[in-house]
Design a protein that fits this description.
454 residues; mainly alpha; five-stranded mixed β-sheet; 58% helix; glycosyltransferase
């Protein structure tokens, strides 16, 4: 698996930051520009997320070079750490008759694979999540402290994960599924104190902590009404089923119901995985569904991995005769997940499958056409994030290279792509139905189309 990750690094070492990763690059650039003397980013750039990932990026740029390859070197190290912790977790929790190679099936999960290629902080968050579970089960208090601190300093979702770990710890202890050693509790205190110190310094510097005062981020963290909660609940469930993951639910649900009903045939490893899965899923649901922040598939990677591991164990536990067929079906569905493309009017978690990598090919083709046609970027309105290339690709943009802001009333040309989730359905329909299509490129469902107003 490490060899695959190294090969991935070599193939993608010049691949730009994508989507939310671009804003992380922007904040890391501020830390880098200030010579690593300040790690609390100003409010006008700050989304509220703690700075561990962006600080690590800035450190790597300082040691090596501010370049895509050095950013991806950091991601490679994090990816290797994640796989290492995942293998340890699987070795601890696989039933005796499960082959160690079954971990490869876990690693084929589509969003997990996609995130190994994406310059964002989700793999770092997953590393600390797996480290916290491994340290809790082995009662390693120092590693547990490092894991909890890492969760709190990587992403605001780390708070939900720490809450989940606390609940998992309580349930494990009450059911005697782990040894309950007192030093492990000191890790909670130390981690919370460390995070409290950071919050204090951020409040002193910015006048706020955790809840950013920057408007375009703040509006994503507001409570919503009943109707939106119902919509968010559907999106939440959809996240667990799309990109081929429905196959896991299809096989897992009947086996899990059978296991829960059969109280005389229990296994401590299955119990621990099932409890962790349900606790994480519950806390994520309570923490995200009532709020306006868009729900991304990558948020729930730990749930997907636990579900696969749980299914493997239940298949072995009940000695299902058709195991090879089930595993083959899972592999095929996981591979198919990278080709799931929705219609342009349906928002898609593009960074949750490898489909997003096709956007770079169609982008190159479209810009080659624009160079040859004489249409200037300043004449073209778009919501594709070309104007942020100083952070996504570390390119210095001249004014002549910048695209116009998207405005259906004033733009003579508009460049659309399904990689953009911000354009409203009525805008898409207006342009696609009433404007002239000048040129379009596509690859495996990802498209980029240039339209001209009639």
């Amino acid at each position: 698996m490490v060899c695959v990750l190294v090969a991935e690094f070599l193939l993608l070492k010049q691949t730009p930051f994508f989507w939310d990763g671009i804003s992380k690059s922007s904040r890391a650039s501020w830390i880098y520009a200030n010579g690593l003397t300040e790690f609390i980013v100003p409010t006008d750039r700050n989304s509220g997320h703690p700075p561990l990932w962006i600080a690590l990026l800035a450190v790597f740029w300082t040691i090596f070079q501010k370049a895509l390859w050095s950013s991806r070197l950091l991601l490679l190290i994090v990816n290797i750490g994640v796989v290492w912790q995942l293998v340890l977790f699987c070795k601890t929790h696989f039933l005796k008759t499960v082959s160690v190679f079954a971990v490869l099936l876990v690693c084929l999960e589509p969003t997990f694979i996609a995130q190994t290629t994406n310059l964002n902080n989700d793999m770092l968050l997953l590393f600390f999540t797996l480290l916290s579970l491994n340290a809790l089960i082995k009662s390693k208090s120092v590693l547990f402290y490092l894991a909890l601190t890492g969760l709190l300093f990587t992403n605001l979702r780390g708070i939900y994960i720490v809450i989940s770990i606390v609940l998992i710890h309580i349930i494990y202890s009450r059911l005697k599924l782990i040894e309950n050693k007192k030093p492990i509790y000191l890790a909670y205190v130390a981690a919370l104190l460390s995070f409290a110190v950071f919050c204090y310094f951020q409040y002193e510097k910015l006048g706020w902590f955790l809840i950013t005062q920057k408007e375009n981020y703040n509006v994503q963290r507001q409570s919503v009404g009943v109707k939106q909660i119902l919509i968010n609940s559907i999106v939440y469930v959809k996240s667990f089923l799309e990109y081929g993951r429905f196959i896991i639910a299809l096989f897992l649900l009947p086996l899990l119901v059978k296991y829960i009903k059969d109280k005389t045939n229990r296994n401590i490893k299955i119990d621990r995985i099932a409890i962790a899965f349900f606790v994480f899923a519950f806390v994520f649901f309570i923490g995200m569904v009532p709020f306006s922040n868009p729900i991304g598939d990558r948020y729930f990677m730990i749930c997907y991995l636990l579900a696969i591991l749980l299914l493997i164990n239940l298949i072995t536990h009940y000695k299902l005769a058709k195991k090879p067929i089930i595993y083959s079906a899972i592999v095929l569905m996981f591979i198919s997940g990278h080709f799931w493309i929705y219609p342009p009017t349906i928002s898609q978690s593009w960074d949750s499958s490898l489909a997003y990598l096709n956007s770079y090919t169609v982008e190159s083709q479209m810009e080659s056409y624009l160079d040859s046609s004489g249409v200037k970027p300043t004449e073209i309105g778009t919501r594709i994030r070309f104007n942020e290339r100083d952070f996504s690709e570390f390119k210095n943009l001249e004014e002549a290279d910048r695209y116009a802001d998207f405005n259906i009333e004033t733009n003579q040309f508009i460049l659309l792509s399904n990689i953009d989730n911000q354009t409203k359905d009525e805008e898409l329909n207006e342009i696609m139905n009433n404007w002239k299509l000048v040129k379009s490129y596509s690859q495996l469902g990802v498209f980029m189309s240039l339209y001209k107003k009639e």
